[in-house]
Specification:
318 residues, alpha+beta, 4-stranded antiparallel beta sheet, 9 helices
Length: 318
């Protein structure tokens, strides 16, 4: 069997996502044949003895994908030092060792994927793949359009990092005693810790409720809160065939009119357009020069500056 990077083998075995496996390697918790592994270390899963935190890496399990509708009051982790309830408690004991993909904080709710497929977990969580997550958010007060535009374009958080451009749309305004608070839909392609809460705190609109309603193209509005189910083969295929394209750091944002401008990818069409126009009438200096000369067969003279004496009058004019 061919050698592969150790973090990839760990992810394939379902012990962690690839990014988490890299953290384990950096902290010296992975060994290959008794020697501490490094990020560039390669190994053969069959021939070599790979240990993670002292435990021998087992052959890969059959892949399993579970969708959970997480309620508030549970932490998204395998165990909690404060002994708070975890999402694993909701799923219960399973034959496979599943881990949660991405984050939903203690007070947030909504769709959460658990799996032992480390490669898919990396695909869904790493910003370079641009997998979108859609959230329905209730905020205190009603932010104006200028504030939402600021958040859409990316905002610098308190730790100095800047968020990627995102999509924010108004979806509902309360019509009862709570009418002063706005409902929004926020689409992210990254997952910084408590990102949405931190974004809206910075502009003075505290998040009152946050629920994830979609992961890529995956939705299930009928899944009861606190319940889970296995994904169908079609749903797994939907996640694994999400476009694997790097997301530009600053794609076309929204202007004051609210219309989205072109992203970087559209700039490539400028080349062919210039080439196509070179065979016709030039729009640069040549066009200005032609405007000062008479058109063929038009019977009109070249343009002249005001006050020029002795110039012919155009034919046909009275």
């Amino acid at each position: 069997m061919a050698e592969e990077r150790v973090q990839k083998l760990i992810a394939r075995a379902g012990l962690a996502s690839r990014r988490e496996a890299e953290d384990l390697i950096r902290s010296g918790e992975v060994t290959v044949n008794g020697e501490v592994a490094e990020l560039g270390t390669k190994a053969d899963a069959v021939r070599d003895h790979i240990k993670v935190r002292g435990k021998l890496l087992r052959p890969p399990e059959e892949k399993r994908y579970v969708l959970l509708n997480k309620p508030q009051g549970y932490v998204t982790t395998m165990s909690d030092p404060e002994e708070r309830p975890t999402v694993v408690d909701l799923v219960g004991p399973l034959r496979e060792r599943l881990f949660p993909v991405g984050r939903l904080d203690f007070n947030s709710e909504g769709l959460l994927l658990l799996t032992n497929d480390g490669e898919l977990a990396d695909r869904l969580t790493h910003p370079r793949y641009g997998c979108s997550k859609l959230y329905r958010v209730k905020v205190q007060g009603s932010p104006d359009e200028a504030t939402l535009e600021k958040l859409r374009r990316g905002i610098r958080l308190e730790d100095g990092t800047k968020t990627r451009p995102c999509r924010i749309e108004r979806v509902r305004r309360g019509r009862t005693a709570d009418s002063s608070n706005a409902w929004l839909e926020v689409t992210l392609t990254e997952g910084k810790q408590q990102q949405i809460r931190r974004m809206f705190d910075l502009v003075g609109h505290r998040v009152m409720r946050l629920r994830r309603i979609a992961i890529g193209g995956l939705r299930d509005p009928k899944l009861p809160r606190g319940q889970w189910r296995d994904l169908s083969p079609d749903e797994v295929a939907l996640l694994t065939t999400e476009p694997k394209k790097p997301v530009p750091r600053d794609p076309g944002g929204r202007g004051k009119s609210g219309k989205r401008g072109p992203g970087r990818g559209k700039a490539v069409s400028a080349g062919p357009k210039r080439k196509a126009s070179s065979g016709g009438r030039s729009k640069g200096r040549d066009s200005k020069a032609k405007s000062r000369s008479p058109r063929a067969g038009s019977g009109k003279p070249a343009g002249r500056s005001a006050g020029t004496k002795g110039a012919r009058k155009p034919r046909g004019r009275k």
